[in-house]
Write the structure tokens for this entry.
Amino acid sequence: MLEVANVAKTYEGKPLLRGVSFTVRQDETLCLLGPSGSGKSTLLLIIAGLEAPDGGQILWDGEDLALVPAHLRDFGLVFQDYALFPHLDVFDNIAYGLKMRHRGRESIQARVMEVLELVNLGGFEHRRVTDLSGGEQQRVALARALAPQPRLLMFDEPLGALDRALRESLLAQLRRILQETRLPSIYVTHDQDEASTIADCVLLLHEGEIVREGAVHEVWAHPGSAWAAEFLGLGNILDGQVLDGKAHVDTPYGSFRVQCAHAHRAGDKIRLLARPARAGAGSTVHGRVADVVFQQDRFKVMLEGGLFVYLDAAPKIGQKVSAKVLIECLG
């Protein structure tokens, strides 16, 4: 089991990671999700042993890895830019780590063939990596990381350079591979859809701190803060003012009664999450249409002031509409 304990890192005099702690258990895929600059990739490099923390510990089964160099940590790492050796063919790229471990020729041959089948590249062993597509190159990079049978697998934005259709296809394959190999994994991304598809557990990283963690369905259901809800694209963030102690809240789009775990008094300023709801459920908001965009099977309707709702039919710009939303207090 990997344990990250109170890891801190400063970059150019500014804190980049602020006491980050978490664990990754066997068979678990943990996703570090956050915007660019939140410290995700730096944290991955620290775990890999490619960068030193300013404070805290990286432990494996209780052993401090501070003095263990990267090549002895037995962690696999897959980058966005593949980092393949262009002068080597597919076989030799995958075999590289095995040769560094002084595995025998027959053992290397068998293992390379095994991981090629695992990533659906059987028969590609003598291809030049420079002749492969982006998706094929990324699968070679994954096979190379898998070949030495690492005790932990790490991914740093591995699908960021691929188009959407290919990204979705590879994500499904990667999920299957992780389930088959049962390797503990850390997956770094800024993409919410990737995180919700691949992860068992999600850590939201914001300005070097973990602001929310939990199973995917828990984090999406209860983001816990206005920043998390906005970053995950869960709905509208509304500013409100409490009208009475029973959380009767006034907003620019109407007054609502909301359930809130926090204690509030009349006059308090609070923030609300308004999620799109199907007809017949939730509270009703009113507004004038500012813009309409078709998204898959319904219309995303922007109202004046910034709030958006989803409707089955497209209204006209300037038309007054009413729609249902689910209101949640964010404190």
Helices lie at 40-48, 90-100, 105-118, 134-146, 164-181, 192-198, 216-221, 226-231. The mean pLDDT is 90. The chain is about 25% helix and 35% strand.
